Amino acid sequence: MEKYVVQMKGITKKFGSYKANDNISLELKKGEILALLGENGAGKSTLMGMLSGLLKPTSGTILLDGKAVEMENPREAKNLGIGMVHQHFMLVPAFSVLENIILGDEPLKAGRIDYKKAAAEITRLAKKYHLEIDLNAKVRDITVGMQQRVEIMKAIYRQANVFIFDEPTAALTPQEIEQLMKILRALAAEGKAIIFITHKLKEIKAVADRCVVIRMGKMIATVVVAETKEEALAEMMVGHKVNLAVDKKETKQDETIFKVEHLSVESHGQLKIKDLDLKVHTGEIVGVAGVDGNGQSELIAAITGLQKIKSGTITLNDKQIQRQSTRKISAVGIGCIPEDRQNVGLILPLTIAENLVLKSYYKSPISKKGFLNYKKINEDGRATIKKFDIRSQSEKEPVAALSGGNQQKVIVAREISAHPELLIAANPTRGVDIGAIEYIHEKIIEQRNEGRGVLLVSFELEEILKLSDRVVVMHEGQIVGEIDPRNTSSEELGLLMAGKKLAE
Amino acid sequence: MLYSRATKALAIPLISIIAGFIIGAILMLVFGYDPIQNYQNLLIGSLGDVYSLGETLRNMIPLMLTALGFAVSSKAGFFNIGGPGQYLMGWFGAIVFALNFANLPTWLLITGSLLSGALLGGIWSFIAGFLRAYFGTSEVITTIMLNYIALYFINFAIKNWLASKGSDSSPNIARRASLNTDFLQKITNNSTFNWGFFIAIMTVFVIWVYFNKTRSGFEVRSVGLNEAASRYAGVNVKRTIIIAMLLSGLLAGLGGAIDGMGNFQNISVSNSLPNVGFNGMAVALLAAENPIGIIFAALLFSALQIGGLSISVYSNTPSEIVDIVIASIIFFVGIKYIFEAALAKNWLKRMHKKMDRGADK
């Protein structure tokens, strides 16, 4: 009989009357990479939360090396050899890589931290697992990819046997993803067991041995990856056939609707955007690809008037709009689906109806002589909720009560209902489920097909390549290249994003 | 959801009030006083006859207005501790106007005094709002400092400009400038109850409408709930902060003006900041910043304060026991999270039981 490192048997987790996990069982062997596939909200994180000691199952047992365990907190899980690499890194930016790795588990020599010993040990481990890290660099100075490797090293250093990776590829470039896959294989080859949470099918095919699919808290199937097609995995995950293609009509793209010229933006004394030029035509989706932190956020903030610009012009329909107030810019026809849905796009405690008028409440017919017409706000809200299929109890429900996908639909509904000439969409589908992704993509394409311009900023290369008519690549505040998405692979795009020029 | 939002909103203050009274009772028992007798005296002393009722209602006025002022700034996300200073400035402004323009027709004299009081209070908080909006200065610090500036400036002004030599008080304002009329005195058995009460109640409803129906009120709420989202949506955040702070001071200033014209009839040199400014914050907290709730919270506090005076009249219990009750209530409101957690846990337990029973079937 094969020995399992981890066994979860009949795990059920209830939150109140809601079953987040319903009788899920999985096993993990030594040296195996197990993918955990499911949409957002399917219950993946809940399941892993129980394995890493954050949550306690309502019923069911967890066995490690054949012994039943009950973990009260994450510390106990760590001591039992379970290492979690979170989606959001838990590192101290001002500390060096070495300090971050040993933090909480420092080797002591006469009461002082023995850095030499720690460094030697970590260097040895890094070689063994092909982890490229610079021990002396400060965490705030290193790339996202390296931060992740630091997180992985933290787990290795604590002698974890089971590694849980929570959507590890979300913020990485294709090259970094490739490197991560190598590390995963090296870990498995050393006999470590790995659980890999994701909703990206390609990565599962590339690296996983088996795959557990969960949907709405229930286990749908456990399959051997090599014997299963991507389409079949997608279908299991969503529960119905998925239409991954988009319907792009031919549009007239002869007119420039939006222009950014020689734009420079300074933020906290640093030049975040350097002499940038950008154009969007009618009926065109321009994708802005780039690694997070290369000036995308500043570009959007500058266009929408949230950030002062240093120099340059921004033109919409031959009207210069730089240095205008945010409200004016929105009124002349720029809509924006912001990156941070919960903190910027919505005011969570306000009702759905109030959030839907967040950008238009000050105008007639909603505001008359300083008074708001709540009857109209709520009536309009009801109509919009119906039109955009926002799943909710009532228009007077606080928007905080909605699921992530439906919150995003509220924003999309508000921005599109204003009929903007240019729609800016920043990571419009991050963290929403496939159903909502399909819907939001459809709406963005609809804008384009109606002859409006769309500026799509996204870290998801697939999304950019799928939707865009033209893709520009941003690196260190500049546009470093432009590609045709129809004949560019995500690998080539990745090279550009890393700042390399394509060979002529 | 087991509780509707309204029940939930009411549960915490009610539990806090009951807990506060229980603490008071325990203390009285420990020190050998009779809690039942004292609470009875408290009730009679505050609401038992027209005179006490008049006093209690009059005492509500500045509590309601300073509480409203605190609530407005708090909704915008600011902790305006400047209530006492703004109240003082309002009091000062009203008395100065009433003394200097005593020849104006009555209606103009009264509105002019009220308005200049409110305006002076507004200017006082505007300073803090302006500094906050444009320089990011903490409004907590500036309002505390402005409290002291107000206190000592007014003391200086009274001694040098208003009071006759050797006196520590301004002269009284003209009888016709007072909000306390013969008619009201007659029906309330010579209490200090005055027309300001109706102005205060009206103001409460105006502020309720402001928050729930107007564009500006919506902006104030939005900025208070999420500044980044408001800025993204095009709200002029700086202007909204200043409006909220200005309004906050106007209300506290109005409270001071009414107290000056209705209760005191003059203004005197004072050693310390008026407590009413701080008590207003407590009232607002107990009412969870709901304007309508503020009426009831102010009634409770006012009754406790007025009734507390008679506790020591009818027995040898020190009236400070009432301060302990008030402080305990605020303490319990402050730790409401404990109650909330307890309520939620109870609810979860009941739900589990229900579910288990359902599963057994």
Can you characterise this structure?
- The complex is a heterodimer of chains A (504) and B (361).
- Chain A is of the alpha/beta class.
- Chain A folds into 2 domains: 4-238, P-loop containing nucleotide triphosphate hydrolases (Rossmann fold); 269-497, 3-Layer(aba) Sandwich (Rossmann fold), CATH 3.40.50.300.
- Helix content of chain A is 33%, strand content 27%.
- Chain A is built from 17 helices and 24 strands.
- Chain A has a 6-stranded mixed sheet, with helices on both faces. In chain A, strands 18-21-22-15-23-24 form a 6-stranded mixed sheet, sandwiched between helices.
- By secondary structure, chain B is mainly α.
- Chain B has 2 domains: 1-33 and 318-361, no CATH class; 60-287, no CATH class.
- Helix content of chain B is 78%, strand content 0%.
- The chains are: A alpha/beta (504), B mainly alpha (361).
- Chain A: This is ABC transporter ATP-binding protein.
- Chain A: GO terms for molecular function: ATP binding; ATP hydrolysis activity.
- Chain A: Keywords: ATP-binding, Cell membrane, Membrane, Nucleotide-binding, Repeat, Translocase, Transport.
